[in-house]
Each structure stands twice: as structure tokens, then as C-alpha cells.
Amino acid sequence: MESSEIRDRMAEVIQHGRPQAAFVLGQKGKRLRVLLPSGKEDTVSSGQTLLLSRKVYPRLSRQEILDLLNESEARRRRLAQELDLAEIWELVVGEAENFDPYELAELYFGSQVEEDQVAALVRAVLEDRLYFRLRDGRISVHSREEVERLLLARKREEERLRRLSLGESFLQALMRGETPPPEIPQEIREYYLSALRDFCLFGEEAPRAKEVKEILSRLKATGPETPFRLLVKAGIFREDENLEILRLRIPVEFPQEVLQEAESLAPEEAPREDLSALETFTIDAEETRDFDDALSLERRGETLVVGVHIADVASVIPPQTRTFAEARRRGQSLYLPEGVIPMLPPVLSEGRLSLRQGESRPAVSFFLHFTPQGKLLQSEIRLTQIRVSRRLTYEEVDQALLQGEEPFRTLYALTKAFQEERRKQGALAVTLPEVVIRVEDGEIRLERLEFTPARELVAECMIAANYAAARFLHQKGVPALYRYQKEPLERILREGEEKDLVRAFQQLRFLVRGETGLSPEFHHGLGLPAYTTATSPIRRFLDLVIQHQLRAVLLGRTPPFSEEALREILVELEEVQAATGQVRARTHRYWLLKYLKLHFQGRLVPALVLEVGERRARVLLPDLMLTAELPLPPGHGLKVGEEVRLKIQRVHPRLDILKLTLS
Fold first, then answer.
1. What is the pLDDT of residue 608?
2. Cα separation of 302 and 521, whole Å?
3. Domain range annotation of the chain
């Protein structure tokens, strides 16, 4: 149409997202200049113009146009509400794909259709969007299949909005500590508690994160800890719930079939050397219940023989059992402040497999032959039957060493000589004090453990036995998994500096992470040419696998695991160990921070400066062996190694926040 032909017509336009009547005053480029019922003049694009009437009006005054507009607007609104689009759709579905708005309006209203009726039809189509669609000035007819699809989508959306409304009421009641309204069905409550739990654990990656965020936003409850707090109020989580276990899906409870099988498992009959008369003893922490290693010392002429006796778990748990598969899934026992998640059912780990005092047990015994000067001459491995004579703690053995009691004095001398030999081969191990946390009945107890002679003695015996296992398997050509560590990037720690915490932490930065592979490589951390782990088969799956390989050779059988099978196990173990390591580290830090919050919030604590940057320092709270970041003011003057006192400004264990300030 020419510009002169467009003016003085009624139109249906979109304004602020909704249709309304308009009167065309003229054209400005490609846009129409219109007068709206409000009396406002505006310009609209072709995209905003839904319908342009065919009727041209005589010249009207501005007031006459406004009267016409308001009358037309009211009529169009009423007609649009009265229209039955389903009836119109049934008339035309399958007849044609699209219609001119006037043509479709005539089918419903009759041949003398009025402008307001056509505009009302356009409005109804735009609002409904179920049976028709307005596109490029024409009305498209949806097929029956499309209408069914849209009806289903609409039903789902209505259900979503209903669920959202009920969910909002439910969570609001939880926030207020009120009983949820009775009209909220149980399935809705369970749905939102489950969605809230997933959101708490997995954040944006949770499947219903968007829905939960929408409700929390409506409730103006968007704090980072809100989901957790709501779940505590609902009784889903405890105040100190270990979210890392849930987040990383660490198995806690044993399947019933595994527990039933564990009750019936018994050691395989095999030739064994009876060492029941040999004096053997365990050395562990006071609270230990799963004893998987014992020691002995014999003098054979000029040779001293150290016996490292390991519970023969493999004789009880063959690879084809469900218990073995469950151990593989768990990877290792997980020791946490609030308790132990064992690799094996307690009936085995603390019962029939544990080297308990006075009870006969099958064992794999490593006999390490030393000269009186502590040189390791040879090693041998045998299947045995032992009976532990004494159950000792580290503290008891430390006391015995102070008093020069045997066999501990000789054992310690031999293991120190073995340690020194490893150091000559380049061994570099950073041993830091350990803070052990125990949580019982809500009370947090900390114990700082130094690496005492008794612990050193036991550690060296286990290292020697594992070294013997690695050499034996390699010499026999038996597939195995070996632990190794490449040379440090730089050696910072010198002899005599082992107790210097600053130097020790500096050295940690230059250590290369230990690895596991199918062939032996030099372990620079231990100073040994071959190394595996076989001394904790109750607690570590890798050790159980290695024990199976050892037993097969000792019994003249084909080892149960090929290199390919071990490669698969290695991939699985690396994933499991990464998860359990993360759980252990984060749980330990959580309880340390909670301890700080309970006992030191607002107080001064001693700290050691480990690193200094322009704006931040890394510090160590030595009493807790806890590292943290310290913001630095301009001109601070702090130096590495300096001892300072810091104020515990703010602690939030759940969010891993520790705010420190210089005193």
C-alpha cells in the first residue's frame, strides 16, 4: 500500500508484550505512526503489527479516534474471551495449512465479519497458541499430532507450576520451623527434599537445580548454606553430615549378600609352617581393632631374622567372591574422625582375619635376614600359622625402648640401620607431625602424634617387607603393581633439618607425586629399586591383590591376575584413591575448623610463616598442623620462618572459611 492508503485505519499492534487496538495516523519510513487508547502516539514496526484493517475511516478528530479506540479495545477484549478456538480448529484442521485472518474469522462469525471480530480472533490465537499460530500475518493450523504434543507439554507445565507452588509452601514452612500444610502431598515433600539434597551436594550440576533455585529465589533464601540448613531442619542431614562421602558416593553400608557371604568364608586349606610357638607381637594405636601385621625377632647363629607376619586375607577371600568385589569397589578402609568405613566387613576385618592376641591365624610371613650391624642379607616368604603373643601400643614400645628392653632395642637398631642404608641410596621422605582427630558423642578431641621410635620401627619393618615382596615377584616374573616415585625436582631438606617445619613444607613443593605401574622403577622417596605394598591386605585392596599373586607362587599355582587384569584394577584404584583421598583431606579440615570455631574464635593463636607474597602469606598453625591464607596489609614486613600470633577472626567449617588477621 502507498503511504496515503495506510493511514486512517484501525490496527492490532503489540505494545509492552500484549496486543491492543491502535489507529494509524501515517507512516514513518518502514514504521507506522499510531495513536493508542491511552492517547499516546508511538511508532511500531511491521513485526509489532498483527493486523491492519481493510476499512478506511473518514477524517476523524483526535477525540473521535480515542472514543473509537476505547470502544473497539473493550469489544475486542470481550470477543477474544468468548471465542471457542477448539470449535474453529475442528472446522478447519486438515482442510488447509494456513488462513488469512479475515478468511478464518468469516468461517466462524459469518461473511459480514467486522474488524473487531478479526482482531479478537488474532488476539485469541496469540494468547492460546494451542490450535493455531500467527505467522507472517497468516494463521497456521496445527495438526492433530501437534495439538496432542502441545496439550501434553501444557499439562506438564501446569503440573510443574503446581508442584513449584506446593514446593514453595513446603520449603517456606521448613524455613520457619513450622509443620508443612496438610494439603502438601507426601510425594511433593519427598520430591523437594530429594531435589534439595541433590542441589546441596552437586550445585548447578544437580538435575533439578533450576527448580530449586527458583523456589529459593522466591523465598529470598539464596545463601550458600541454605539448602544444607533446610535439610538439617527436615532431619535428612545431621549438623555434621559428611557431605563429601555423599558427594563422591563412597559406599558406607555393606550389601546384605556380602555380609551373609562374609559370615561363611573360611581359610583355604594349604600347607603351612606352624609358628604358633614363635613369640610374635602387634604394635598399633590404642584404638586399633583390625590388626593385619605382627612382628617377631629370632637369632639364627650370626644372623638376626626379623619376621613380618601379615594376615593371610587372600586365603579367605578368593577373587570370585562378592566380598572381594566389594573390597575392589571400596579400594581401601577409610579412617575418619567420626569413625571407620572398612574395606572388609567387620566380621572379617576385626574378627576372623585380625591378628588378635592369643588366637591362631593363617599368615604370609616375610623373614628378613640381617647382620648384627643391620645389613639386609636376604629375605624369604612363607605361608605360616601364627598366634600373637602380645598386643602392644606405640606408647608401650616407646617406653620399652627408653628402658632398653629386648627385643625392641635390637629391632630398632636393625631398622635404623636399614633406614640409613636407604638414605645412602637417596631416600627423601618428608615426615610431618600428625594431628589425629576423634569425634565421640559430638566432642572433638585432638592428639598430636610425633613420629616416635616405635612408629619408626614399625614403618621400617613394613617398608622392608614390601621391598621383599616386590623383589620376589619381579624375580619370579609374576605380574604385579609397583609403587615408585621419581626424583625430587630439588632437594631442599638437609640432614638434621627433618624437624624444621618451614624447610619440610618447602621440600613438599618439590616432591614428585608417587605413581603405580606394572614394572618396578626406583622409588626416590624410599631409596629402593623396587617397591609394592603387601602389608595391609585388611585395609588396602592393592595389598590384597599382591597377596593373591604371592600366595599363588608359594603354592605353585598360576597367579590369578594377568597384566591386563592388573591394568584394569590400577585404573579403578586410581579413581577410588582420588575420591577417598579427597574425603579424608576435606573431612579432616572440616573438623579442625570446627574445633577452631568452638575453642579459638576471636582468640590469638601461634602461627609460622611458610610463604610470603605481595598481598598474601601462607601460614601454618603448628598446634593443628593446619595451613591457611593470611591477607597482608601494606608494609607488613613478614618473613618466611617468622613466628607470629594471629587472630581467628571468622571460621565457617561447612564453607571452608578461615579468616585470620595479624594481631
1. 96
2. 33
3. 3-142, 147-237, 256-587, 601-662
